[in-house]
Structure formats: structure tokens, C-alpha cells
Amino acid sequence: MHLNFQAIWNSLGLWLTFMLFAFGHLHTQLSSWTLTVALFHRLIAFLVMGWLIINFIKIYRSNLINKRNLIKTLTLSILLFILLIILGIIASFIKFSPSILAGFLGLAMLFFMTLILFKEMQGHNDRACTGTCPYGVAIDMPHRFHRFILFVTVTFYLQILWGAYVRHSGAGLVCPDFPLCQGQWMPNAFLPQVHILHRMGALIVEMLILFLTFRAYTTQQTLENRRRAKRAALLTLVQITLGIGSVLSLTHPLWTTAHLMTAMLILANLVLLSYHSKPA
């Protein structure tokens, strides 16, 4: 069995980041083993930074075709990660508001998206191509479809931020029932309304992604783009199921962590779909 060590190395940063977010989320949720989880979280953060620095040095000293774009993307990743580390240290001493904590997750998701783009751009250097590599651009992609993918991606990103606000504001615990909230469709109190709006957002996102998948199969798209759209749609169904489980379990850490991890997988597919659907 032949192992492509370069492909494994390219994917390592994404998997480490995936684990970093999982341990970071568990650290803020668990009442026991918090020290162990926190140590793992910091160790993985150290490994991620090492992976970023090593890649930057390798690319800077290379003669890759898209070297400039790789350096720009990786530089942005490093800056975002340093900012996340600084905010994480400050958060150890200062209790932030729910809005700031939601913004913290927003920065983390931006960092994750830059890593996805960096890995995909790296991958094109590992494939045989002559002249200028196409950077994943599909042939004859309509501008309207690409703009719609970007719209869906941004909408899903905002849904993630709203979900973070729901968790950090305590709104996740005010609606222990489903599909109603405290026996009502729209309670009068602020936090229940925040929770209900997140549920409505989940339905809107699901419909958008389902329509996106339909369009991917009815327009001139590559097979891989259709698969990405289908994966996003299926994962969104899983995401909604995990969201319901989080509500009924009173936001159990394992349910909410799985909920966040699934959101990252959906976001990854949407980002890749956006990247590979750029009109030629």
C-alpha cells in the first residue's frame, strides 16, 4: 500500500485544527477532567502553530507555481491564529460577553476556512499540470451559481455565529422542549426568542443547501462539486438532528461538541464548493 506522505502532511493542519476546536469546546463545557482537556487543547495549539511555521518556511524557499497565493493565504492563517491565541489568553483572565465569545468563534471559523483554501491550493502543486495550474476552476461555470454558493456559505457562517451566541448567552438551556419552546412557538422573553431564531435559521440554511444541491445536479458542474453539495446537504440533516439532541439533553457537552464539529464539516464542503465553482 502506497502512502502519500505529502498529502498526509498537507491534511495534518486541518485535522489538528479540528481536534483543537473540539478540545477547546469541551474545555468550556465539562465539569470534570478540565485540566487534562485544557492541556491537550494547548498542546494541539502548539502543534498547529508549528505546522503553520514549517509550511511557511517550506513554501517561502520553494519555486511553486502559485507560491505568492500560498504565502498570502498562509500569512493570513498565521495572523488569525496568533490573534486567537492572544484572545484565548485574555479570556483566561477576563470574562467576555456572549457577543465577544461568538465573535471569537467567528475568527476561529475564518482561520479554519483559510486552512481549507491553503490545503486545496497546495494540492494543485502535487498534481501534474503544465503552464498555469487551473487552481480548481471549473469550466464554463455560471457567475450566478457561484454567487449563490457564496451567499449560502456566508449565511451558514452567520448561523454558526448565532449558534455560538445561543450557547454563550445561556439561551440553549431555556428551551428544553422541541419543536416548541416552553410550550410556545415564539415566547415573549429575549433568550427564548434567541433560541427560536436559531432553530428558524437552521431550517432556512437546510432549504438553501438542499436547493444548492439541486442546482449542482441541474447545471454544468463537475462530479466532485456535485458530491460536495450532496455531502453538505446530508451533513446539514445530521446537524439538525444533533441540534435537537443538544436541546433534549440540556446541552450535554458531547452533543454540543458533535454539533459544532458537524458544522465545521459543512462549512468545509461549502468553502471547497465556492472555491471550485469560480467561473473561468
Give a nutshell description of this structure.
With 280 residues, the chain is mostly helical.
Backbone CA Rg: 20 Å
Total beta strand runs: 0
| Backbone shape | globular
Characterize the biggest β-sheet: none
Portion of residues within helices: over 70%
Q: Features of this protein?
A:
mainly alpha; 8 helices; 76% helix; 280 residues
Can you offer a commentary on this structure?
This protein is mainly α. 76% of the residues lie in helices and 0% in strands. The protein has eight helices and no strands. α5 (143-169) packs antiparallel against α6 (190-218) and α6 runs antiparallel to α7. The longest helix is centred in the middle third of the chain and has 29 residues, at 98-126. The two termini are 37 Å apart.
Helix-strand layout with pairing:
Layout: H1 5-29, H2 34-60, H3 67-91, H4 98-126, H5 143-169, H6 190-218, H7 223-248, H8 253-276
Helix pairs in contact: 1-2, 1-4, 1-8, 2-3, 3-4, 4-5, 4-8, 5-6, 5-8, 6-7, 7-8
